[in-house]
Amino acid sequence: MPSRKRESERKGNPPVNTGPSPFSDECANSAVEQLNELARGSGSLRRCVMENDVDEEIFKLLDCMNEQIHLKLILERKMKECWMAMAKARESMGSLLNISVVNLDSTSTVDVENGVNFILRQRDDDFSRKQMFKKFGLFTPIHLVTAQKHSIAAIKLVCNIASNQAQLVQDMAKYAEHDLKRL
Questions:
Q1: pLDDT of 118 over the 90 cut
Q2: Is residue 50 part of a domain?
Q3: How far apart are CA 5 and CA 16, in angstroms?
Q4: Of 40, 43, 159, 160, which one has the greatest count of Cβ atoms within 10 A?
């Protein structure tokens, strides 16, 4: 009886073994054996599950560490940009920095009376939340505004780094809870 070859074998490809069918007795027997081991509390299956849990904890820990490093690099870049913008603003202001208290006459005084000119006002909370820092004056140099934006971003990054650090400590505590001797 001539052997019938598959079409892929006729083209020169080696035969492919697809393994047991999900409906075969061999696959059903191995599934039953795994369930029996689970019911008996077999050490190998429990060890496999525990190794997967430890692996997941390790991956979470490594992801958290990677994010921590990434956030710190961004913080470093923001702080560097802030200091550069402040240096540019200082350079652009030039001779204005030469004015000091020593150059001004300190003997002049002004009489201030309590009256209608000085009234305590309450501002909306929205206004105070909108501006984290006070502006430097009416005509603020653009480099100071840039430095302010970078410093606000740096403050937000520090908050993110602190929360990520807390998550990192929590993940390390979970990792330490696993009894690695049983693996």
A1: no
A2: yes
A3: 12
A4: 160
